[in-house]
Prior knowledge:
Shape: globular
Strand content: 15-25%
Distance between the termini: 33 Å
CATH superfamily: Response regulator
CATH architecture: 3-Layer(aba) Sandwich
Order of helices and strands: EHEHEHEHEHEH
CATH class: Alpha Beta
Strand order of the largest sheet: 2-1-3-4-5-6
Radius of gyration: 14 Å
Amino acid sequence: xxxxxxxxxxDHEIVRKSICKLLSGDPTLDVICQTVNGEDAxxxxxxxxxxxILLDITLPGISGIEAARRIRKVSPxxxxxxxxxxxxxxxxxxxxGAGGHAYVTKGDAALELMDAIRAVRDGTRFxxxxxxxxxxxxxxx
Length: 141
C-alpha cells in the first residue's frame, strides 16, 4: 500500500510539530510539506497535489476556509480535513461547504485525528464528537 501524502497547515509551530509527530507514528502516512498560512497552502497544494491536507481555519492572510475554496480549484483530488479550535456550528458548516471532508476540533485531535484520516481515506466524512453533540446536521443532501 502506498503512503498517504499530507500537507499540514497551521500557523502555531507547536501545534504543527505535534500533529506531525502524531502522524509520524503511522507508516502509511507521509507529511510531505508543512506551511503556516493560507496562501502558501494553496501554492503547495497546486505544486505537490497532496492526498490529504490538514488545514487550520484561523491563519495569517487568507483564512483556511478561503484557502480550501482555492485548493478545490487547483488540486481537486486533495481531500481537506479541517483541524480547528472553532466549534461553532456555523463555522463547521462554512468549512464543510468550502470543500472539507472532515472537521476535527483541536481539543479532540489527540483522540480523533487518526479516525478522521482513516474515514476520509475510506471515502466517508468525519465530524468531531464535540460538534455532533451540539446537534450538527450537514447542510448537504
